[in-house]
Every structure is written in structure tokens, then in C-alpha cells.
Design goal:
Largest interface: A-B, 44 and 48 residues
Strand content of chain A: 15-25%
Number of strands of chain B: 7
Low-confidence stretches of chain B: none
CATH class of chain B: Alpha Beta
Order of helices and strands of chain A: EHEHEHEHHEHEHEEEEHEEHEHEHH
Largest sheet of chain A: 7 strands, mixed
CATH topology of chain B: Rossmann fold
Oligomer: heterodimer
Strand order of the largest sheet of chain B: 1-2-3-7-6
Number of domains of chain A: 2
CATH architecture of the largest domain in chain A: 3-Layer(aba) Sandwich
CATH architecture of chain B: 3-Layer(aba) Sandwich
Radius of gyration of chain B: 19 Å
Chain lengths: 352, 315
């Protein structure tokens, strides 16, 4: 495979373009996925189209030029309507990628996902398939405040019939995006906007990464840290810091939030006996608490201490930079929790 | 309408009516779980539209969907079994009355969410357009759904993308227990079509020929690439919103209250020479037998295997 360094953003754009070249039924539909529809000066001399935005973050830039407005479809700002259309199209022969510009807009797009797309196959006794990829954006850090910064992949993940993937790096972003598009089910692909500029090695070729499998990015023996998306970097930095004190940390990049890879997580906890989960969601009823509950249930006898979660506080995402930084889980917070856990264990060891 | 079509319509109308009367009786005996919404009284709408569609055309339906499903050609035995929550139901007993569907027949599902079909129908029409098929999608919805935001989003989207979709409003005068005349700022649903730059027509929804003619025109437009049409059918439901509804909101002055689209078609068809008295009698007898057979089939069908609780979640 030909390797070269590209950004997280480019990896996703490239994946969408390759999928659209490979399969004519793949379409992209959403608000301003091209932009500038029916604006004369955006029609090139050769009759092809230019985009005004190519997505608000520019992730679909150039796609309308290559694939035309019949397959890169700008919609009105009407999430309920076009998500309904994306589900209807998926049920009848197309393989849409539908963009929810910010996951915070889910209030306007929820019914087609929650009650239609996720349930049709089940309600119809297996006689429907919904090959739909929902691309959306989550995460704090850009100063976008309470309605453009939330982390809501856990909401989608709590719906039976929905798969949710959250990539942590450019290589995974491309492979997971192609896997999501190939999948015959409704897959939410949730991107942390703070990762868009991240660079990494990405093969030019078409490849997929299996949905539902976590990735052990660092092996260790004393403590397991499970992290999601942008938090994988926090987990890795924490692991490096603890390594200096000879504490060996295993870092698991969850990759898929629903259905998450219980086998990999449980095997790791059985080995290390200690678990921290980092999740930028608000702290209750989220992916971290779900992982904690399953591990407590299935690996209790292997645990040497309490399962810890490091999440955002139970507040909206604040605007001011210092407040926003205080909101996001970081290495300092994880280290504090890790040290408590380790000290507890050392005390216990002394008592024993 | 041609004689052949009239006979088909009369058959389907009778099947729907007998089906719903049977469901009403069976529900009363406690043999049907959950919520049931009966279509009786509105038969002219489903059959007038469906007489012009084939299996490759798509429809989206509503919580009051039994009539659409029968007219679209869904297996009646499978429907009755589904409504009773049995293994041989169209959805294996996992959907029930509000989710009767058969994608192979172009029936994209009854729908428990009021207004849930607008986007789905637009999407089916988007598939038709993108894949270059010569078909249409029809979105059935009630007057209640016309006040949901998705009505606006779906019609606007379908219009700007010029999609081959027909929006068919079944105005049965009541959204659940609230009169349409109270709930709607506009006097009709049809007049709202002008806001979306599409034709809007209001027809007598108790007259199957009127529904048929309006649909025929809309299909021609859709297939000629001229985009969507809104058809409002003025109709009435004979039963309540749901089974068990005391119907305190109904009055003697309700439009269409004393009309029956089946009785009207029978008289008109015989008068126009489309159908003989004998043909009408035979169709009624056959329809009754079809429903009786469906009930026997459904009652004999076993409950779903417990293992099916966990299947059909992902493809």
C-alpha cells in the first residue's frame, strides 16, 4: 500500500470519493454538502459544478465537481425532511451518506433515525435493509458553545439497529468511513471537529476497518484505559507519563461505540485488573457508564479497584476558552484518577 | 375507469371493509394486542390511487394503514397474522398493526409516527429519479399530519428536487379527537400546495372515480419530470381514531358522515354499466371468504419463536 501523510479531513473526503467511484448508488445528501446550487458563476466552462462550501468544514470539497449535483445533493436546512429522504432512499436502492452538520442538530433529525431507519428491518421481519451512513460532527474545543460542541454519539449508540463509529486518527477515519458506507445498516460516523487537522499515514488504496472491533494501540499490564475519538490521544499521553513511574498502561481505542467490542475490553481488564474509561460525553447514561456496568458485571472478580470514568462535567459546553478547556477531559484529570487508583492499590497491597 | 379496474377496485374496497370489520370484532374479543386504527370509510382513497400503481411504485402509509396495505397487494393472510402478533405475520409478528409492510410490494410500511412518511416518500422518489426508473412514490397522510413540520419539509424538498412523488391527504375531518377546522389555519390542505409551487387539488374522497382521475393526472406529471402533486381527499372514518375511542367529538353535521364509498361505487358502477349486480354480489361473497380464510389462517398461526426477539436488528 502506498503510504503518505494526509489530514483526518482529507482521509474522510478521499473515502467518500472512492466509495462514490466504486458504487454508483452512493450519494451524498445534506445542507451545503456542495453549496451554491443554481448559482450561475459556479458552473464551470465545461458544464461541471464548483462548490461554495463543500460542507461547512470543507470535507466534501470537489465531490460535486466529480460526481455532479445528481449525486451530491444540497438540501434546504430541513434535517427532518432530508434525513427522512435519506432513509427512504436507503430502503429503495440507494446507499446514501447523509450529513448532520453538527450532532447538536439531532433534535431536528431524530425521528428518521430513531423511529424509521433503525427499526424498519425489525418491524418488517427482516425484509428491509437501510444502508445509510450518517456523517456528523461532535466535540468541544472550538469555542462553538453549547449548541455546536456536544458529544452525543452515545445517544445514537443507545438505539437498537444503529451502529456508531468514532475514529481517532486519519488512518481509521478512512477505513471506518469506507466500512460504514459498505455496511447494509444505519451507521453513524461521528467526527471530532478538533481532529480535522490531525495528520497521519493513510494508504491511497481503498481499505476498510472492521466495525465492532476495538484497537489495542498500546499494550500494558497494570491499567487499562479505554478511550473514544479525540480522547485516545489523552489516553496515550497519560500512558507515557505513567510509564516513567514504571506503570504499564494498556490503551484501547474503542473505534466503534455501538456495538462496542466487549471481548477486547474484558480481556484487557482481566489482564490488568484496573480500568479507566475516557469519554467526552456528559457523565451520566453515556458510553463510559455503559462500559463500566458491563465490566462490573462480567469481570468483577478480576478487578483490583473501582472502575473509573473520566467524562465532561454535567453541564452544557461553555463558551469562554478557559471554561471550555476545563470542561474537556485532559491528561491532568486522567492522571489524578489513575494515581488514586494506583495509590489505593498500593495501599491495599501493603495491607495484604 | 375501465371495467377491469372498477371490478378490481370494488374487490379491494370490499376486502378492506370486511377486513376492518373483522379486526373490530376480533379486537373486541381481546385477541389483538396494542393499538389498532381502522380504515373503514376511507376505502375510495386507497383503491382509487392504487388502481394506478404497480409493485415497482412505492407508497408510505400511516397508523391507519390496513387499507393501503391491502390495496397495494400485501398478503391478507400475512396481514391478519401480523395484527394478531403471530409467527406467520408479514413482519413475523414483530411490527403489528402500525407497522404492516412489504417492501417487495412497494409498501414501505404503515407508520406509528404521525407525519413520518413525508421524508420517506421523498427518498423513495429520489431513488426512482436517481436510478432512472419509470415509477412514482405516493405518500398517504392524514389531516392531522398536515400540521406537522415534516409536511412542510417533505413537500418543499420534493418540489425543489422535482421528485416523482404524490402527496395524498386523507382528510377524515379529525386528527385524533381534534377537528381539522380547528387545527388548521388554512381552510383546506390542498391550498397549501401553492406555497410549494406544486398543484394542489381537493377531491371528493368518497368518490373513487374522483380520486382515480386526480391520481392519474399526478402520475403523468410525475413521470414527465414535472414534480410532485398534492391531492386532498375529503373523507370520513367510520370507526374512532383507535379501537376503544368513544368518539365524543363526532357530530351529526360532520361532512360525509352518512356516506359510504362502497355503496356509492356499487350504484354508480351498475348504473354506468361497469359492473353487473351479479358481479357485485360475487365480488362481495369472494371478499368475505378471503377475510374469513385470513382469520382462520391467523388464528392457527403459532406465536413467534422467542428466539426471534433477537433477530432482524442488523442486516
Amino acid at each position: 500500500m502506498t503510504k503518505r501523510e494526509v489530514t483526518f479531513m482529507t482521509a474522510i473526503t478521499e473515502a467518500m470519493a472512492q466509495a462514490m467511484r466504486k458504487d454508483e448508488t452512493v450519494i451524498l445528501i445534506g445542507t451545503d454538502v456542495a453549496g451554491g446550487a443554481e448559482v450561475d458563476h459556479l458552473v464551470k466552462d465545461d458544464g461541471r459544478y464548483d462548490d461554495a462550501f463543500g460542507g461547512v468544514f470543507g470535507l466534501s470539497k470537489g465531490l460535486v465537481t466529480e460526481f455532479g449535483r445528481g449525486r451530491v445533493i444540497d438540501t434546504p436546512i430541513a434535517e427532518h425532511g432530508y434525513f427522512g429522504a435519506a432513509v427512504g432512499a436507503a430502503a429503495t436502492g440507494l446507499r446514501p451518506i447523509s450529513e448532520l452538520m453538527f450532532n447538536d442538530f439531532i433534535g431536528f433529525a431524530l425521528d428518521p433515525i430513531l423511529n424509521q431507519g433503525a427499526k424498519m428491518r425489525y418491524m418488517f421481519g427482516g425484509k428491509a435493509k437501510i444502508p445509510l451512513t450518517v456523517r456528523t460532527v461532535h466535540g468541544a474545543g472550538a469555542g462553538a458553545a453549547a449548541q455546536h460542541s456536544q458529544t452525543l454519539y452515545g445517544w445514537f449508540g443507545s438505539i437498537p439497529g444503529v451502529k456508531v463509529v468514532v475514529p481517532s486518527n486519519p488512518y481509521d477515519a478512512k477505513g471506518l468511513m469506507l466500512a460504514a458506507i459498505e455496511d447494509d445498516n444505519l451507521v453513524v460516523f461521528s467526527e471530532d471537529k478538533m481532529l480535522y487537522g490531525m495528520k497521519g499515514d493513510v494508504p491511497e488504496e481503498y481499505y476498510t476497518i472492521e466495525i465492532g472491533k476495538a484497537n489495542v494501540v498500546r499494550e500494558g499490564t497494570d491499567l487499562t484505559i479505554v478511550a473514544i475519538g479525540k480522547m485516545v490521544q489523552v489516553a496515550q499521553q497519560t500512558a507515557e507519563t505513567l510509564q516513567k513511574d514504571d506503570i504499564s498502561v494498556e490503551v484501547i481505542d474503542l473505534r466503534t461505540v455501538a456495538p462496542w467490542d466487549q471481548e477486547t475490553v474484558l480481556n484487557s481488564v482481566k489482564k490488568t485488573g484496573r480500568l479507566i474509561v475516557i469519554d467526552e460525553s456528559n457523565p451520566h447514561n453515556n458510553t463510559a457508564t455503559d462500559i463500566a456496568s458491563v465490566v462490573a458485571d462480567k469481570a468483577f472478580d478480576y478487578l483490583d479497584g473501582p472502575i473509573k470514568t473520566v467524562c465532561a462535567p454535567n453541564t452544557p459546553v461553555p463558551f469562554a476558552h478557559n471554561l471550555e478547556q476545563a470542561y474537556i477531559p485532559d491528561v491532568k484529570k486522567v492522571l489524578t484518577v489513575a494515581e488514586e487508583l494506583i495509590i489505593d492499590l498500593q495501599k491495599k497491597a501493603v495491607r495484604v | 375507469m375501465e371495467k377491469k379496474e372498477v371490478l378490481w377496485i370494488y374487490q379491494k374496497m370490499n376486502e378492506i371493509r370486511f377486513f376492518e370489520e373483522e379486526v373490530h370484532r376480533t379486537f373486541g374479543k381481546g385477541l389483538i394486542p396494542g393499538f389498532v386504527h381502522l380504515y373503514a370509510g376511507e376505502e375510495a382513497v386507497a383503491t382509487g390511487v392504487m388502481a394506478l400503481l404497480d409493485d415497482e411504485d412505492y407508497i408510505t402509509s400511516t397508523h391507519r394503514g390496513h387499507g393501503h396495505a391491502i390495496a397495494k397487494g400485501c398478503d391478507i393472510r400475512g396481514m391478519m397474522a401480523e395484527i394478531m402478533g403471530k409467527k406467520d405475520g408479514l413482519g413475523g409478528g414483530k411490527g403489528g398493526s402500525m407497522h404492516v409492510a412489504d417492501v417487495e410490494k412497494g409498501m414501505l410500511g404503515a407508520n406509528g409516527i404521525v407525519g413520518g412518511g413525508f421524508g420517506l416518500a421523498a427518498g423513495a422518489a429520489l431513488s426512482i429519479k436517481t436510478l432512472g426508473r419509470d415509477n412514482v412514490a405516493v405518500c398517504f397522510f392524514g389531516d392531522g399530519a398536515s400540521n406537522e413540520g415534516t409536511f412542510h419539509e417533505g413537500l418543499n424538498l420534493a418540489s425543489i428536487l422535482n421528485l416523482p412523488v404524490i402527496f395524498v391527504c386523507e382528510n377524515n375531518q379529525f386528527g385524533e379527537g381534534t377537528p381539522f377546522r380547528y387545527a388548521s389555519a388554512s381552510e383546506t390542505v390542498a391550498e397549501r400546495a401553492s406555497a410549494y409551487n406544486m398543484p394542489g387539488v381537493r377531491v371528493d374522497g368518497m368518490d373513487v372515480e374522483a380520486v382515480y382521475n386526480a391520481t392519474k393526472e399526478a402520475i403523468v406529471r410525475a413521470k414527465a419530470g414535472q414534480g410532485p402533486t398534492l391531492i386532498e381527499c375529503d373523507t370520513y372514518r367510520m370507526f374512532g381514531h383507535f379501537e376503544g375511542d368513544e368518539q365524543k367529538y363526532k357530530t351529526d353535521q360532520d361532512p360525509n358522515r352518512d356516506r359510504d364509498p362502497i355503496v356509492e361505487l356499487r350504484a354508480k358502477a351498475i348504473q354506468k354499466g361497469w359492473m353487473t349486480e351479479t358481479e357485485a354480489n360475487d365480488i362481495e361473497t369472494a371478499a368475505k371468504a378471503t377475510i374469513k380464510d385470513a382469520v382462520e389462517f391467523a388464528e392457527a398461526s403459532p406465536l413467534p419463536d422467542l428466539s426471534s426477539l433477537y433477530t432482524d436488528i442488523f442486516a
